[in-house]
Write a structure and sequence with these properties.
The protein is built from ten helices and 13 strands. The protein is an alpha/beta fold. The protein folds into two domains: 205 residues, Rossmann fold (3-Layer(aba) Sandwich), CATH 3.40.50; 63 residues, UDP-galactose 4-epimerase, domain 1. The strands form four sheets. The protein has a seven-stranded parallel sheet, with helices on both faces. Strands 7-10 form a two-stranded parallel ribbon. It has a two-stranded parallel sheet with strand order 8-13. The protein starts with a strand and ends with a helix.
């Protein structure tokens, strides 16, 4: 299968590219940044012409290009709307015109907003309240409308908070590890009790492969690790690996509330299950940072 990966030069996109190539698929990267290797088309989501060129001769698309930084989306909601909403509409129109057989859209568990019940399954209402998750849900709805109304088979994956080597330096993981390596205290914003089901990028990339190779379309799936880790636990686990102290400051504006999310539907329908335990994944990330900084 010839697959276009939008955002394939980025952190999560690069993992998806590797997973698909290992599975024997031919992969083309569509991004504004050049990747380290492989077939590449320089293109912009805001340009329908770029996307029409990028999707020519393509069997399927994994759509990860977006404003994925929640703090950037908070500061510049207009940019998040342009890329996450208009950009997705442009992509879906290009896929329609070029008769692309399947689209897998990278959404987020954060589209649910404040939990009505837990664990959250895919039937839970979506009440996003932040520019990031609002725009991701809007992109998701546009993508699914092309499935339902225009016949472009589409799946949406509501991803857990991703982590792994090469992730953004402003992530809490990288900030904690970098401070520990400098011998500085780890600073927790708020109580530290806020938690996430951190999901390793390798597990997420496997979910994209499962979705791409499945016969399912027109559905949404939660893709999250079952382990719920608080920020305090994360800080303590980093400090165990790189000894340092932990301090607390006021909570940061725009943080997403904690929630427990179920991926049972993905297990049953796609055969997806996470394979990377959090302790293992964190140790790998710490070792990578130590290698980079020594």
């Amino acid at each position: 299968m010839r697959v276009l990966v939008t955002g394939g030069s980025g952190f999560l996109g690069s993992y998806v590219v590797s997973a698909l190539r290992e599975a024997g698929h031919s992969v083309v990267i569509f991004d504004i940044q050049s990747p380290n290797s492989g077939d590449y088309i320089r293109g912009d989501l805001t340009s329908l012409d770029d996307l029409l060129i990028g999707t020519q001769g393509i069997d399927a698309v994994c759509h990860l290009a977006a404003v994925g930084d929640v703090y950037l989306a908070f500061d510049k909601p207009y940019l998040a709307a342009e890329l996450n909403v208009v950009g997705t509409a442009n992509l879906m129109e290009a896929c329609l015109r070029n008769q692309v057989a399947k689209v897998v859209y990278a959404s987020t568990w954060e589209v649910y907003g404040e939990p009505c019940y837990q664990p959250i399954d895919e039937a839970h209402p979506c009440n996003p309240d932040h520019p990031y998750n609002i725009t991701k849900l809007a992109g998701e709805r546009i993508a699914l409308s092309y499935d339902r109304l225009k016949g472009v088979p589409t799946l949406c994956l509501r991803l857990g908070t991703a982590y792994g080597t090469r992730m953004r330096p402003n992530s809490v993981f990288c900030i904690f590890i970098a401070r520990a390596l400098r011998g500085e205290p780890l600073v927790i914003k708020g109580s530290g009790e806020q938690s996430r089901q951190f999901t390793h990028a390798r597990d997420i990339s496997y979910a994209f492969r499962c979705a791409l190779e499945s016969a399912v379309s027109g559905e949404v799936f939660n893709i999250v690790s079952p382990e719920s880790i608080s920020i305090r636990q994360l800080a303590e686990m980093v400090a165990e690996r790189i000894p340092t102290s932990i301090t607390y400051e006021e909570a940061r504006e725009g943080d997403i509330a904690s929630a427990l999310v179920s991926s049972e539907k993905a297990r049953l329908a796609l055969g997806w299950e996470p394979a990377v335990g959090f302790s293992e994944g964190l140790s790998e990330l710490v070792e990578w940072h130590v290698g980079v900084h020594t």
